[in-house]
Design a protein that fits this description.
The chain is of the alpha/beta class. It folds into 2 domains: 2-238, ATPase, nucleotide binding domain (Nucleotidyltransferase, domain 5), CATH 3.30.420; 246-433 and 465-498, 2-Layer Sandwich (Nucleotidyltransferase, domain 5). Helix content is 38%, strand content 20%. It is built from 20 helices and 24 strands. Strands 1, 2, 3, 5, 13, 14 and 15 form a 7-stranded mixed beta sheet that branches. A 7-stranded mixed beta sheet has the order 18-19-17-16-22-23-24. Strands 4-7 form a two-stranded antiparallel ribbon. Strand 16 (252-257) and strand 17 form a beta hairpin. The longest helix is centred in the last third of the chain and has 25 residues, at 373-397. It starts with a strand and ends with a helix.
Amino acid sequence: MSLLGLDVGTTGTKAVVFRSDGQILAEAYREYWESFPQPGWVELNPQEIWAAVQEVLQKVNLAAAGDPVKAMSFSILGEAVTPVDKDGNFLYNAVTSPDSRSSPQTEAWLKKLSKLEIFQITGMALHPSYSLNKVIWFKEERPEIYRKAWKFLLVEDLLFYLFGLPPTIDTSLAGRTMALDVKERRWSKTILELAGVEEDKLAQVMPSGRVVGKMAQGTSKHLGFSQPPLVVTGAHDQPANALGAGVIREGMAVDVTGTVECVTIVYDHPVLTQQMLDQNYSVYPYVKGDMYATIAFNYTGGNLLRWYRDNFADEERAQAAAEGKNIYEVILRDLPEKPTGLLVLPHFVGTGTPHLDAGSKGAILGLTLATSKKDFVKGLIEGVSYEIRHNLESLAEAGAGVERLRALGGGARSPVWLQLKADILNRPLATINVPEAGCLGAAILAGVATGEYSSLEEATQLLIRETATYEPNPESARAYDELFDLYRQVYPAVRPLF
């Protein structure tokens, strides 16, 4: 019997079926799109999400029919919340994390509690992105929808309901709502009372990796399962990625370089200090036992190289076509060996943590007439890596340090970028044998919950191994230490200009 991991993201859904030894038996993906009905509003159509989920499950079940799925679980985008009535009708689109319509409701919290009090209860730095503030918006701005709503569901709990099971949310995803008591790992009565939101309008909370039940027979048949699978609580996407990368002990972290670059670190106790709050780091339950996770991110990651590709890489595009190679391989080859000395502030779409400054802009300092295209390219990825180092040092100062990183995403396919990152971060960086970490993390949760593996430790030891390790080059690391001291001065210096 096989295990299925379902990864539901902001722009698409992927399903992967794994054999118990980690071999991929089948995979399928379908895209969908966000809508922007007003400035600052960002929504997803839950019908389109459900259609995508049905399609990918039908496809992988057909492809893996020889090894039927025993159990499944989820990796889920955070914060997106949908009102549903008692008959299962969607009353509104899913309001997603970047949506800022609930800014007035967010500010109103400061008349009830301080930011530190909210943080120490929920682990979340007060912000419009969190689900509870969107629910309050419905109550105040769309009262007719609030009255009709049986539940306000995030995508995981919504899928449990659509699969014929009680709406259930795991503690890591519930932590992204700003309604969970992060220490008690249950809905906070204090927060919900102050919000004026009834607890029975939310899903039941369970730890990650718990069996909720068997999928309804009719739904199971429609989705192509040979028999109803057990459905298991999953995780917010970043903890799912971390589990799929084998991150199960304090001091470990995973660095995912996609469009956005995100580092997820885990530790044994919640770090709910003023310093963590001041730097906008969230603290929420991890998928293992009583552990906790924090995410540090930069909105400009791999998209900075894409920007270069689209605007400056005509020559590289022609070379890639002539040689039959990936254009990014051509862009990143023959880079200068030594640090460029350029200081690129990678705030091309504002900042992520620790600043969360949507108004900041990118800056490139240190250009001369001797600067080449290859210097420019390397300077771009140096800047992205400086920003991640800034986050790692900020976290360490706040009591959440990182000893070892594992790399995932598009950036993890480039040895050049990996070595540069190890030099700038002055930490070893390892690649792993896992191409679909989020889906694998979900499948591991399903496997442990149903006895396929005895523990998360056994599963990760069996399925995940490091394939290469990039150690910092001492000479380069020393040079980057000096440049990083300068880099930390760039944002405060240029911020007044924007």
